[in-house]
Every structure is written in structure tokens, then in C-alpha cells.
Input
Amino acid sequence: MILRLYCAAVLAFLSLPIVVAVGVAFGSDKIARFPPTALSLRWFGVALSNPTFITALGNSVVLAALTTLLTIVIGLPAAMALVRHRLPGQPVLETFLLSPLSLPGVLFGVAMLFFLGASGFGLTAWGILAAHVVIAVPYVLRTTLAVYRGLDRGLEETAGVLGATPWQTFWHVTLPLLRPGLVAGGLFAFLTSFDNVPVSIFLTTARTTTLPVTIMSYLVNQDFDPIVGAISAVQVALVLGLLFLLDRIYGIGQITSLAGQ
Amino acid sequence: MSTSAGGSKMADVELRGIAKRYGAVQAVAALDLRVEPGQFVSLLGPSGCGKTTTLRIIAGLVRPDAGQVIIGGRVMNDVPVHHRGLGLVAQNYALFPHMTVMENVTFGLRMRRAAPADIARRAGEALEMVRLTGLGDRYPRQLSGGQQQRVALARCLLVEPAVLLLDEPLGALDKKLREAMQVELKSLQRQVGITAIFVTHDQEEALTLSDRIAVMHQGRIQQVGAPHEIYETPRTRFVAEFIGVCNFLEGKVIERGMGAVTIRTDGGALVAVGASGQNAPAEGVKVVVAVRPEKLVVGATGMSRGTALPARVEAVVYVGTAVHVHLRASTGERLIAYRQNDSAAPVALAPGAEVVVSWSPEAARLLPEGSA
Output
């Protein structure tokens, strides 16, 4: 009973701010008010016809998608090497690859800004992508490592004895069995990129700005009005849609249980 | 039974001077072994004796430091695992959890890009052979242990391996099921006529299944032979001790007679052991006399020939099919005797009873002293 009350309280604590932020978007007032006095979708129209927001939203989606792809391309072979091969300094390497998790985002953003400037790369979309990949790789790596370490080595060996080439073994045995880890890690990589402010804020320009950065600067310059609520609602809807899709395909329980490992 | 579901290509296996070291541990040392085509050979030994490493070297999963692996007359050392054409059943079966029974069974053929019609026909035959017809759409987790085991076997046999490698495949099953699977495994192997190498630490399993047994200890083969040879004429104390139960009496040769040697045990008892004159050790040599408990006769008087030691019954253990009598000879040696439970009064002996324990010279074996 107490546990149930506690859970309800925690859930309320977690979700109420989102309810408020999204709720104001459905009001008709010019200033943000919760609960709204009258319901209207007019602010969605305003927000979605604002080219700044739309560009930022597009940038964020593309950036998060590319980040997810690249983190898997980097994280999967890294996990395989760490689990199945005897590497010199293996624990050090693993800690190093996971270290961006413990680095303050602001610090990494500043460092990346200096690096891109000093190395002559400049502030391009590729620089942001690289930064996001660095901070997102640990998520894919951790979940994939967890799944791979729990996987019986005998499965891959048996596949080999039965005549599968190393590539066939990877494609037909290893990869399908690692998929839960990759999906869970990929989801977290996507969300990490899609929500990121502290790193992106140092690296984006007007052309390459992301949605969270745009919302942030809008809040700094304008104030909290229903337009921000509306675009936030769009962002939340996109994330929920993604989660729903993954749940239908893989079952969310499996993914969240892995993320806890 | 068509030959297409099971291999008709019997191959012999030869290991020459195989050695493998892991850090400070010599897992396998200078190991030689010959397995004839179609034979069922067990590698038997305690855990850590190198039997699994040997199997993995044959499979190609472990590269030996030295020596040659020859299968079907071909040196396999540099042939990668997926080109060796072998079958492996692991202790936990290693069924692919994301594939159905049918997909598991056909895995090898699919990887070889066999014709789909051919795959379907042979898979049907293989499933029938292991009595799993109709379960093709199940996933491994929906099967019992025995069924999983048979899927693993069918998956192996479908690729017509030159040699079937079995790594304690019955270890995870309970006793009743294990005995049933032993019979099934053996008849399958005969039916298919495949060479099989079987790793186990269970001596009973090895005795039941094998044409020949290689007893391993500390990376070396102690003795290779048919089950009855290993049991009746062990060459070392380790083999005698590992296979079944054995009484050991340590002593010195004091006389070499016609067809028999007399030994005085360290306790002072005189023991006669059958041995032909040439092979018998010289007088004064320290030896170990080994005699199986079922060869001992416990009674009021001893046998007319052979060894007869006065002894006191220390304990009598009733085990159903037999009675185990624990004895201490008047010269101090401890002995255990098995008495078949076929008499009217199975536990006629009581602790404390004074008896004579005797055995014939042919029942005992002379083993070199200190052979571990």
C-alpha cells in the first residue's frame, strides 16, 4: 500500500512538469496559463509555421538518426572486440570507451568547441554529429556488452563447427542475438542526441541549430509562452511515437530491463 | 533408414603428439590417440584432465601448441573450424534460441547453401530419426531437456559430419533420462555408422557407451582399451581408482613362483597375485595390489587357493542390489567387499564378526608403485 502510494507520487513528480509544459500549448490565451482557460490548437499552428523551429526540428531528427546509426556502427564492433578477444589493456579500453558518460556535458561541449576551432574543422554539422556520437556511444556499448557477455560462446562455436563461415556466424547467430542490446542502446543514443543541450549549445550555428537549443534560446530571449509549449509537445509526441514503435516490435520491457544493466 | 540423413562417410581420427598449455597449466601433453572409423571412443577423466581441450582441438576451436590432428587421412591443423566437416553436441546443446527447431536442424545445410527441396527432405528424415516430427515450429525453450538434446543431435547429423564430437551431452539430464538417452545415443550412432568421440567424467556412461575408452589424467592418456580391459586390467592405480571402486594393498614382492607372485603387504599379510613369469616384477620391488570389491569372498573360511586374510567386519551397508561389507584385516589393511544380494539372508554379517576374506590370484592385479 505504502509502496503503491510512493510509486504514484514518484510518477506524478516525474510527469507533472511535462503535463504542464504540454498542457499550456492547448490553451487559447496569449500567455502561458495552466490549466488553460479555453482549449485551442492555434499555438501548434504558430509553432509549426515558425521556420526557426521547423528547421531545428528537422536538424534534430536527422542528427539523432545519424548519431544512432554511427554509434551502432562503432559500438557493436567495439563490444565484440571487448568480449570475444583478448586485447591488451582491455579493462582500460572499456573504461575509456564508457568515460563520456561521466564527463560533464558542458565541459565536453567547451572542449569540443576549442578542438573544432583549433583543428580547423570549424563549426559544421559534422562536428556536432561527431560530438553526439562520442557522448552516445557508451549507451550502445553498455547494453551490447551486457547482452554479449550473457551470450553462450558455444552458440557461435557450434555455428562454426556446423559449417558457418565467421561472417555467416555473425550474420545468422551473433547479430540476431545481440539485437535487444543494439535496439536498447540505439534508443538511448537517439534520445541522448535528440534531447542534448549542454554540448549542442556550444557547437550549433543558426543553420545547424537543434530543437532543444532553439527552445532554450527562445526561452532566454522571449519568455515562456504557449509556442514553446506547442513545440515541446511535438518533441514529446515524436519520442513517444518512437517508443511506441519499438514496443510494438521488440517489447519495451525487454529494452528497459537491459538499460538497467 | 536412408543414408542421406546420416553420414555414410566414416572417418578415422588420429592425434599425434598433441600438446596445449594455458599459462602455467599443461592442459594436454604429448597426446597420441587413434580412433578407428565408426568407433565410439570416450575420453574419460576428472575435470581438468584435458579431455574437453582435446575435443576442442579436434573440432578446431583450440589450436594445439604442438602435434597433428588427422581426420580421414588429412592433416587438419590449418583447416578452419567451418571447413572440418564435423559435428559437435555441447553439454548445454547450444541450440540457437532465436531459431525454431526446424531452423536449428537445417542450419548447417542452409549455411552450405543446399537446395531448399533437399534441405526440407533431409530435415524431415532427421527429425523422424530423433522422433521429433511435428515439433519443427517450436522454439528450443519450449522443449524438454531430452528433446533439446535430440534436436542438437539431429542438427549435427544432418550435415553428415565425418566425426561426431560429444562434449558431455548427457550431463545436464537427470539420471533416468540420462540412461534412456545413453541407449538412444548409442543406437543412433550405430545406425548412422558414424565415428564418435565422447567426452565424459562419468565412468559408468563411458563403460556403457564406448567401444573404447581413453582414460585421461593431467593432460595425458593413462590407458586406452575396451571397457572390460579398462575395468579388469587397469594399468595404473589412477585408472583402477577412477573406474569403479578398488581395494589397494601396498607391499613388496617377496617371491616369484609359477604363474603367481607373492607380495608381503606393508602390514605383513601375504598376498598371491597371478602374473606370468616374464612380466612379473623382481623380488624386492615395491608394488600395489589392486582387487575389485566384487571379487572378494567373505566367509567363515577362506578359499583353498589364493589369498585368505582373517578380518573383522566393521560395517555392513545395504544398497539394494548388493551388500557392501567394510572390513579390516588382522594385519591392518582396510578392504571393501561387495556381496550380490541373491542369498536368502542378505545381511547375515554383523559388524564385529570375525571372518576370512579371500580372493583368487587371477582376481588381483599388480600395479607399479606410485603410479598416480
